[in-house]
Amino acid sequence: MQPLVHPGPKTEPRIIAQNVATRRAMCVLTDDRPLIDQLHETLAALGTDSGFAEIHGGDYAPLSYCVPDVATAEKALSFSETREHDAAHLMYGSVTLGVRDGAPYMHSHCFWQTTDGTFEGGHVWLETEPGHNAPFAVVTGIYGAQWQSTTDPETHMPVFTPVKRRSTMYEAQTAAEGTVIARVLPNIDITDAVLRVCREAGYETASVRAGLGSFVGATFIDRATGQIRLADGPATEVIALVGDVRTIGGELAVRLTATLVDRHGVIHAGELVPGENLVAATFELTIQRIDTPAVDVIRRAA
């Protein structure tokens, strides 16, 4: 895929990363108020206003969303018109939580099944609410940085950027260290970005969690056939990016798997081909250090 040419001046650096500490909480959602309110209430109970959430199961009712679309005269990529379902069965969702103009904000990509059995995905708007059979969320609060949403001068689109802030003594004592959050800017390959963040953080073994953003199309391996498949651009939204980083022979190696939705609303999934997945507008990356060595499981005959 060719890099996108955005209308505004190029921002430096191209990867903006912050070291943070984390605390987690389980959140059983209810059907009485919007998703964003309930996730931020959970963050508030954790003593922060920024973090990420992983959501699964249950229903959204109503669901308001869009999918990526082609370029306009003002932007290198755009969104479709708003689409809606009275109800949809959630499979999985990634959410970045932070603030915009001083108010709670979220960026969420989800994968669901419609009531007629069709699988869909997209960028979930703030109006979305849990249904009577509400989803379940694992909410992770971050300390030492804040996700701030602003209109990006390069892409002219709303983006989250991690901004450093001081942790309180209580937060420092109760939260777990070993996490980096990062914004990856346009036209940086996501595999390269993960490796660069890990090198700079000194991580030898790590897990990629709840990453979401957009690629210039996508290039991935179909695990069933081993064939390389493509999703066309100018943008494909990443519903979830997960993976592992290991040190092999003294060198960092990464394997990333993504669930994606293209501009036609078609769902894709597979192992990403290194060097072939450039960020389109932005990518919110979370990487957590793993301190316990890998365990080799030896299967023994009974």
**Count the strands?**
21
Order of helices and strands: EHEEEEEEEEEEEEHEHEEEEEEE
Q: Assembly state here?
A: single chain
Show unreliable segments: none
Mean pLDDT: 95
Characterize the largest beta sheet: strand count, sense, and whether it forms a barrel: 19 strands, mixed
Count of discrete structural domains: 1
Radius of gyration: 19 Å
Give me the CATH fold name: 60s Ribosomal Protein L30, Chain: A
Tally of contiguous helical segments: 3
3D shape: globular
The assigned structural class equals: mainly beta
What gap, in angstroms, lies between the N and C termini? 51 Å
Helix share bin: under 10%
CATH superfamily: Hypothetical protein, similar to alpha- acetolactate decarboxylase, domain 2
State the CATH class: Alpha Beta
CATH architecture: 2-Layer Sandwich
What is the strand content? over 45%
